[in-house]
Amino acid sequence: MPSQQEQLEVWSGRLLKALELEGTPVDISAVLDLAAAAAHNVVRPAAPLTTFIAGYAAGLAAGSGQATDAASMRSAMAVAAAECRDAADEGDAQ
C-alpha cells in the first residue's frame, strides 16, 4: 500500500497533468504546512482557502512576469504564513 506522501505525489502529478501544468514543481510539504498553520491559527476551513489564495496570488505574480514561478510561490506562501501567525497572535491577545 502506498504511503500518504506517495499518494499525494501521485495525486498532485495527476492534477497537474489534468490542468496542463506538467513539470510544475510542487513543494507538497510546504503547502501542507501552510494549510496546517491556517487551520490551527485561524479556523479549520481556512486551510483550503489560504492555500488557494496563495496559489492564485503566486500565479498572478508569475504570469505577469513579476517573478519566476518558484519565487512567486515562495513569496505568496511566506506572506500567507505570516498572516496566519498574526491571526494566532491576535487570538492570543483576545
Determine the mean pLDDT: 94
Percent of residues in helices? over 70%
Main beta sheet:
none
C-alpha geometry: flat
Radius of gyration: 15 Å
Overall SS class = mainly alpha
**Alpha-carbon distance between the termini?**
46 Å
Strand-residue fraction? Answer: under 5%
| Structure summary, number of beta strands | 0
Which series of helices and strands comes N to C? HHHH
Low-pLDDT stretches are none
How many helices?
4
Key attributes of the depicted protein:
94 residues; mainly alpha; 4 helices; flat
Q: Could you please describe the fold and organization of this structure?
A:
The chain has four helices and no strands. The protein is mostly helical and 94 residues long. Helix 2 (28-41) packs across helix 3 and helix 3 runs antiparallel to helix 4 (69-93). It is flat. It starts with a helix and ends with a helix.
Write the layout of secondary structure elements.
Elements: H1 4-18, H2 28-41, H3 46-63, H4 69-93
Explain briefly what this protein structure is:
The chain has 94 residues and is an all-alpha fold. 77% of the residues lie in helices and 0% in strands. The protein is flat.
